[in-house]
Amino acid sequence: MLANPRFHGKPPLQSSFLHSLRNEGFAFSFCCPGKFPLSSSIPLSLVRTSKTLRIKALNQTNTAEATNDSSEGSQYISKPYSVKIPVGDRHIFVETGHIGRQASGSVSVTDGETIVYASCCLADDPSEPTDFYPLSVHYQERFSAAGRTSGGFFKREGRAKDHEVLICRLIDRPLRPTMMKGFYHETQVLSWVLSYDGLHSPDSLAITASGIAVALSEVPHSKTIAGVRIGLVGDKYIVNPTTKEMEESELDLVLAGTDTAILMIEGFCNFLPEEKVLKAVEIGQEAVRVICNEVEALVKKCGKPKMVEAIKLPPPELYRHVEEIAGGELVKALQLKNKIPRRKALSALEEKVITILTEKGFVSKDETSGGAEIIPELFEDEDEDEALLLDGEVDEGDVHIKPVSRKPIPKFFSEVDVKLVFKDVTSKFLRRRIVEGGKRSDGRTPTGIRVINSECGLLPRAHGSTLFTRGETQALAVVTLGDKQMAQRIDNLVDVDEVKRFYLQYSFPPSCVGEVGRMGAPSRREIGHGMLAERALEPILPSEDDFPYTIRVESNITESNGSSSMASVCGGCLALQDAGVPVKGSIAGIAMGMVLDTQEFGGDGQPLILSDITGSEDASGDMDFKVAGNETGITAFQMDIKVGGVTLSIMEQALLQARDGRKQILAEMSKCTPPPSRKLSEHAPLILVMRVKPEKINMIIGSGGKKVKSIIEETGVESIDTQSNGVVKITARDLTSLEKTKAIILNLTMVPKIGDIFRNCEIKSIVAFGAFVEIAPGREGLCHISELSSDFLAKVEDVYKVGDRVDVKLIEINDKGQLRLSVRALLPEASSEKSVKGQPNTPMKEAGSSPISPPKGIFRRAASTTKVEPLKDDSKSTSVNDKEGNRMVNGEAKIGS
């Protein structure tokens, strides 16, 4: 250790030499003693490289072998390379070779002061072949990017939050169609937000960064992808709008694709027509094209060779063999209308094909149809010498040939190859049936909608419920109403305590497809489908001022055969109406499919768009395009494809066909039996919204919240929520406790005026110079001894005691807000006396003293109620519903409002 100069705070002896080599772009080797001493020069032929710096540590025990093979075990470190790419009205900065140099591909993308880093790595050994590409995507927003830490107990990032899962899906869905079939090395894409300025959103940057990382890596793929966000402010479409611009945007569309086609879109809007959505897609596709072209130039300079040789596909002849074995039975199985019988028939047929091709071996029909093939067989004839032969025709060592029949040799294939091919052949037969026959598995035409049934009020104790059934897809939607405490809190990247008053949660148990499986945390698919349905329904919800409830919708999928997320939209809309939520209209959702290359199956070559697709049409088709909205506009959409991309003309055809489908579905939803109740359930809580002066809020809360807690205990309400702007929300289970709480708060926050009369007020305490009377809970005033009676009183106790009740009139409010009351002003003698004298009331003062101030702490707050007459204040109450669903305004029922 003493021989190492680093432990003495000095640089190593060779540091200047190595530094000079780095500057010259050379590679170097640490050599063991006796090979290349440090004092001698290192042959440049062993160390020079081009554009890279190769660093190799040689094992002292095997120096000769390591020196002879300088490439084995080496690590390449690329030089940093950066490029600016125009996106919208600004540029993004892309850099590679600076961070994450040991990854197969890594890149950082900067927009403003938002930086997203993405890396792509792959396993050294391939995994078992499967029909699902082994790709995993992880996106994480580091709280340090915004200069803060997690709000939880553990001050580090943990399980992915819902919005991070949604962005993972945005990255995964466009990447997957570009991956090459037959590549089984597990691939992992990581994307981190390293810096966030609060202005430039990181999600679209993460799509672009991940696409570039894959393009730079060794993973074979078809084309580079990129992503952008499109907003619509007024009539102006904005590419990658800022967060401030998005606050005014009517559209939030995230688009990903290649330089020639669209791979994925997702977003929501406020009933925009199809034409405006298509215009946004067109602008987004042009922005993606520019990014992809710039990235292709970057990949040519810095990208790594693709591992094309690692692609392992099934033998081509296997497709012909599977069709020959299962063709006829496959056609019959695909004609079964019901999902479960069809699935069992296909499963049995698959087992039969696997047994023939993997265990028994397959002999092609054309090999045996013409009889056995006659081939010569070599053998030695022992009697050959007895034959009469001419001289020179045969030699003594010749072997004679005898024609024999050859038996066909069975061909054996691996089980995984058979499964992969069987799935492809099944998809091919299904597509051919749709295109050639014009009929789908359940007998519908391409534009046909499955049979729809819906039933509301299924669950008597729930606030709202609907069972929506479309074909073999069924969703049980349940609505729960509550106060602010039921709202969903979100710990996001910026230091803002975001609260959602409406959220939809989607559940997809294995029983809905007749299977068994593990039950646990919601999957990425469940989170994504729930958010899509939530965004679809959000535009029809009333404002918080009109309906102050927190709304939770549960969509429990009880049967599934395609388009369960859109069934959640339809069922959720009806459940909201059944719960009495005053929605602005009805929303329906539909999933569109596609067969792209119809010429292969006897069609005219034009893409065939399918309405309301089933599960098999989703799996075997080329597109899954979900669209939600009403007859005139779209509220949410999501498109996934399994081919190299779709064009704008295909999207336009799909959107227009989806609009016709939504009209049919909405018409069927209107036939719901029984229909939605459209009134508040008797089991739902009552919420009263009051508005008081902001400076009066502290009087309701009290010291440390004691006052508001005492009100809740006394009245039995569930909660009292106060806001700094003067809004007070009272949540109760019955109208009696609600009205009692309202009266207490009104008395606490009222602003009394001179001349107001208060009846039946309690005397709370007695002092030498008068009595303190409580005119409202927590509000007391001084009634001087001279104002307690029209006659002279030597002592207050001669007439009154604590607990007595009197009628008083407010005669003065001093500069400190203290109240002066009078009993005498309401007596007949005092009234006649004042009418004779014509003198107004004046504050009672002792000689040489200032206006009377009660002793410290005399203003006590109580929770008891008093009768107030008249009730004059500056507070307002709005938005309360009684059990019959009627709106309550200022305590009076307004029927039908």
UniProtKB/TrEMBL annotation:
Domain S1 motif intervals: 755-824
SMART domains according to UniProt: KH, S1
Region (Disordered) location: 831-897
CDD domains xref list: KH-I_PNPase, RNase_PH_PNPase_2, S1_PNPase
PROSITE patterns: KH_TYPE_1, S1
EC number(s) given by UniProt: 2.7.7.8
Keyword terms: Chloroplast, Exonuclease, Hydrolase, mRNA processing, Nuclease, Nucleotidyltransferase, Plastid, RNA-binding, rRNA processing, Transferase, Transit peptide, tRNA processing
Subcellular location: Plastid, Chloroplast
UniProt record, GO biological process: mitochondrial mRNA catabolic process; mitochondrial RNA 3'-end processing; mRNA processing; rRNA processing; tRNA processing
Entry GO CC: chloroplast stroma; cytosol; mitochondrion
SUPFAM superfamilies: Eukaryotic type KH-domain (KH-domain type I), Nucleic acid-binding proteins, Ribonuclease PH domain 2-like, Ribosomal protein S5 domain 2-like
Biased composition (Basic and acidic residues): 869-886
The UniProt record lists the keyword tRNA processing: yes
Gene3D superfamilies the record matches: GHMP Kinase, N-terminal domain (3.30.230.70), K Homology domain, type 1 (3.30.1370.10), Nucleic acid-binding proteins (2.40.50.140)
Keyword RNA-binding annotated: yes
Enzyme class: transferase
Pfam families: KH_1 (PF00013), RNase_PH (PF01138), RNase_PH_C (PF03725), S1 (PF00575)
Example GO molecular function: RNA binding
Similarity field: Belongs to the polyribonucleotide nucleotidyltransferase family.
HAMAP family: PNPase
Identification of the protein by name: polyribonucleotide nucleotidyltransferase
Species the sequence originates in: Papaver nudicaule (Iceland poppy)
